[in-house]
Batch of 2 targets.
Target 1
Amino acid sequence: MIHLRDVTYFYPRATVPALAGLSLDVPAGQFCAVIGANGAGKSTLCYTLAGFVPHFYRGKLTGQVEVAGVDVPAASLAAIAGQVGLVFANPFNQITGARFTVREEIAFGLENLGVPLDEMRARIDDILSFAKLTELAERSPFALSGGQQQRLAIASVLVMRPPLVVLDEPTSQLDPIGSKEVFAVLRDLAATDEATVVLAEQKLEWVAVFADRVIVLHEGRIVADGPPGDVLASGDLTQYGLQPTRYTQAARAALAAGLRRDSAELPVTLEEAVEYFK
Amino acid sequence: MKNAQRPTPNATPAGPMPITVEDVSFTYPSGTHALRGVSLRIAPGEAMAIVGENGAGKTTLVKHLNGLLKPSQGRVLVGDWDTREHSVAKTAARVGYVFQNPDDQIVERTVGDEVGFGPKQLGRTEAERAADVAAALALVELSDYAKTHPYDLTTAQRKLVTLASVLAMRTPILIFDEPTMGQDARGLALIGGIVERLKGEGRTVLTITHDIDFCAAHFGRVVVMADGQVLADGAAADVLARAELLATTNVEPPQLVRLAQALRLPRAALTVDGFVETLQGSRGAGGQG
């Protein structure tokens, strides 16, 4: 689904590359989480997969970027948009401002895709209910709370059912259980092969539970890549500006205090921690 | 805060500054009942977090504390001031508020001017302002960016700029609306350190947060909101252990509390050190783990 080879990218006027010789292959149906400190290149990677780099941001892109069979640098944004849905970190950047209600906002993408009216209505009702926005459907998008706007931004992308869904910290304003629910939905989308999911995130507990694969970015490069259990328990995590989950921290502290002597794998999730400390 | 008003001299008040929220209800012009009979007393020097689901009324409540919103019913006192009787600009000298979205707050063209905006409104001299700006930018580790346009920074950095803007005003009360949003580990440690420092100075620090682990690490009192009402209010260690109650407003206990509960430990600690101590204690008493 994703094929990146030696991708290097400079924003206009930048002297340091935002992506530096990055290669990445993601098969269809995978839920791949991208983590890293601020400035590591997470958003830039998201923009590159969705064609905003280089088509919107300009700058200098070298290397090969192929997404869903589309040669991204060569294709038009319209051609890419049919294959990739991007959820921005800040919902203010997503909401069109051209629609008066939440329902119309969600319809916007479907109208542009030319989806028949009956199907459009059914898909909108489904996604409103999933995003817990049914009761707010007739409200202005700008009269929603921050978290509600973020759910709207996610809903208006998912309703288009793109083969590749790219999300840049989509849960930063969501309440804790709401965040977890978004992760679960993304896991289900990938697990049923309805979509391939690339998610830039800071919430490592839910990355650990739900993602198939975790990539660590640092200064525009991939410095770790593997199953969540391996990547998130690694001692290198802090040097890349990431904080391990409290489960991993507690296990390390227990080891240091001599409460555990064995070299069992360190836990990254609640379930693993319960097993570890039992 | 965007409307520049006349400078308010001698605005920084001395002495303790409690906040009293008395049976406050608030209805937006759209008809949304955002607060329904909220009462709270916040003592000077308290560190209090407000948690709860999206749309629970958290931001509406804190906007009452600096007078941005006035109650439809009930009243809010900041010190001896009723917020209805004083302008937002005057109340801002007592209560600093960092917006959830930094782009709602930023008005100036350089980071330095942005951070100096509040002290200027308070009528401080140029020399005082320069000192305030330098100190605040040092705290958020953005001293090198004083001449930068705020929109040339990342969102996470802009959030730190708005934090500095409020720190520069040296208010006795500070409110941080989702301070950790979009921050990485370094940003989290930085903001946690600032909260601890303010607590050490005896200032009142209030936050709205969805980051329950951050909340557990730094805030001694937790208020849980749902549907415009206060569901629970008490010591963090007690409130954050009430999993069923928290779930009704889409919140889960902190990771360490969930772990302690799953292991049936006698006590649910809020810090890694506390967790290890509890583990040590229970194993010492029980013989084996």
Note: Chain B has two domains: 19-253, 254-289.
Target 2
Amino acid sequence: MAELMQLTSKRASALVAHIDGLPAMPAAAMRLLSAVGRNLDFTQIDAIVRSDEAIAARVLRIANSVIYNPRGTTVLLPEAVRRLGTRALVRIAMETEVGGLLAEGGRAYGMRRGDLSEASVGGAVAAGLIAKRVGADEGLCFAGALLRDVGKIVIDALAGPAALDALASRGEGMPFLDCEVEEFGADHSELGAALAVHWKLPTPMARLIRFHHTPPQDPIDPCCDVVHAADWVARFAGLGLGADGMLYPFDRGARERLGLTRSDLEPLVIAVLTETAAQRAATKLAFGRST
Amino acid sequence: MPPPRTETILGSTTDADRITVGVADLQASRDASRTIITYALGSCIGVTLWDPILRAGGMLHFMLPEGALNATKSLENPFMFGDTGFTLLLERVLAFGARRDRLVICAAGGAEVLADEGHFRIGSRNRTLLRKVLWKHGMLLSADDTGGSHSRTLSLRLSDGATLVKSQGKERALWPS
């Protein structure tokens, strides 16, 4: 509880509490996110997939893609669930739910429909890869990266479309988080953490959201560093670039703790772009992006 | 319902007029009614070629400087890299009948992480690579808007070559300046 209080400023909590019309975290996503770090058994995952039409549709699409179904015979839901396996199902379900939640997000940053959800998935893919490399909790890092920019939907609710475009030029060279604080009294990472607390998400998730741009220098585990680096990998892959562009520092401490060099970074950027492009093609823009 | 219109300083375009270039993508056209556009250029670079007589051109949105960094990927998607991508962009535009000595060449992007401390420098290496590739082909940039830490949207109107950059809420003509 004490940590939760530290993660959210009074201003951020008050803003989140008083905004009308903030989306609710979908029930299936809540069940999955609350279970991060615990091993869900196959029956529990199966029940979540069957309970949510969007997840079931995506599972079917992926199970019927050439990767999982090279023979091209139609695979129905029970077989699809069996073929994909628990780990892939959790990822697909989370991506679907959080992607749907963020699909309209980022308007205040001048992003197009689907940009924020695609950046969310791209960052999550990067976080999974980096976590594996450094031995961090892959599931937690994946989920944290998926939700890292959820505070941007709070900013959307506070400001009109493309409202932040001019902000970046006002403070030339100023970190974008400072621009947000100047404008709203809290930045999107604080607001995201406040929203996570409001939704009663687990504390580690709120921590990853809160520190995705400013990882603590005495971390209790590598996860904040992983999600911070993952955000950058997604940005280098051209994902999630709105008015904030590249106006954040890449934390030197995180970079050094992760031992991330240029030669490590570029294959990650390529992997993220390749994975998000493959997903876009496989799901026919499941999040509704139209470009 | 008619397609939505996008207002720009040089008029408006509809979605149907627009050819969108994704990340690590290339599009070229000789349909003068079209506008080629790419969004969210960060450290990536968007480069355009336009022939004023043919009113044809193309745009590449590349992500990393050299294909040698990943030979397999540069074969799978050569548009991901500046060196392999630019060569293909040039080939596509020349295949329309464009002439090298007439081409208007513009670029935008190549932004840098705020306080990168010279560590990753993807944006600046992309900028250097582009100049190197152009030099190799005996070509020069007609105009560019690169560097800084902002994201940019780049568009090329094929009817008159108007090349626009939108950044920080403002749109300006890159070419003609």
Note: The two ends of chain B are 36 Å apart (CA to CA).
